[in-house]
Design goal:
alpha+beta; Rieske Iron-sulfur Protein; three-stranded antiparallel β-sheet; 25% helix; rod-shaped
Length: 198
């Protein structure tokens, strides 16, 4: 074997090795740059769906989760409270929720997928205060037309246990219903809705 052929083989081997090592090095060096194009963990958390476990919520109780920096309430309504929703439509500004921000499935008197569980963004639609939860069906302080619901202490807006606004109060619309879906009988995913195909 001549020295020219040995040199050529050595040259091909060194060229191939340098190419492979250069490709690996370029790939490793590119990782930090490529990762900057991905959304940060904080950005994902701001808009990411939130899973809620509802198996421990007692009838008449409310729990709060945080989604997109806002409080989201889940209320487990009693049969008595559900019946009161049908009886209170005369005092409401928008009982059919025609002017509300909500998924299509919430266009009913209970404004939810499952009559028993209400899911609402816990913010008053007037100036963004957080209403207090007043679930009792009769409350002398709230007036004779009170059937349980939410009261905003900032400017006196009242909402029923479906988040529908009373007539004659500062809040212009019903409380918002976020997109959500049931994953199981005991778990809800807030931030995604089946109707949106997500």
């Amino acid at each position: 074997m001549s020295s020219d052929s040995i040199d050529m083989e050595r040259r091909q081997f060194l060229t191939g090795t340098a190419t492979v090592l250069g490709g690996v090095g370029a790939s490793v060096a590119a990782i930090p740059f490529v990762s900057t194009f991905q959304p940060s963990a904080r950005a994902k958390a701001i808009g990411a769906p939130v899973e809620a476990n509802i198996d421990q919520i007692e009838p008449g109780q409310r729990v709060t989760y945080k989604w997109r920096g806002k409080p989201v309430w889940i209320v487990r309504r009693t049969e008595e409270q559900l019946k009161a929703l049908e009886d209170s439509t005369a005092v409401l500004a928008d009982p059919e929720s025609a002017k509300s921000i909500q998924p299509v499935f919430a266009e009913n008197s209970w404004r939810s997928l499952n009559r028993e569980y209400l899911v609402l963004v816990g913010i008053c639609t007037h100036l963004g205060c957080s209403p207090s939860f007043r679930p009792l069906l009769s409350d002398e302080i709230m007036g004779s037309d009170w059937q349980g619901g939410f009261y905003c202490p900032c400017h006196g807006s009242k909402f029923d246990l479906s988040g529908r606004v009373y007539a004659g109060v500062p809040a212009p619309t019903n409380m918002d219903v976020p997109p959500y879906k049931f994953l199981t009988d005991t778990r809800i995913l807030i931030g995604e809705s089946e109707e949106a195909g997500s």
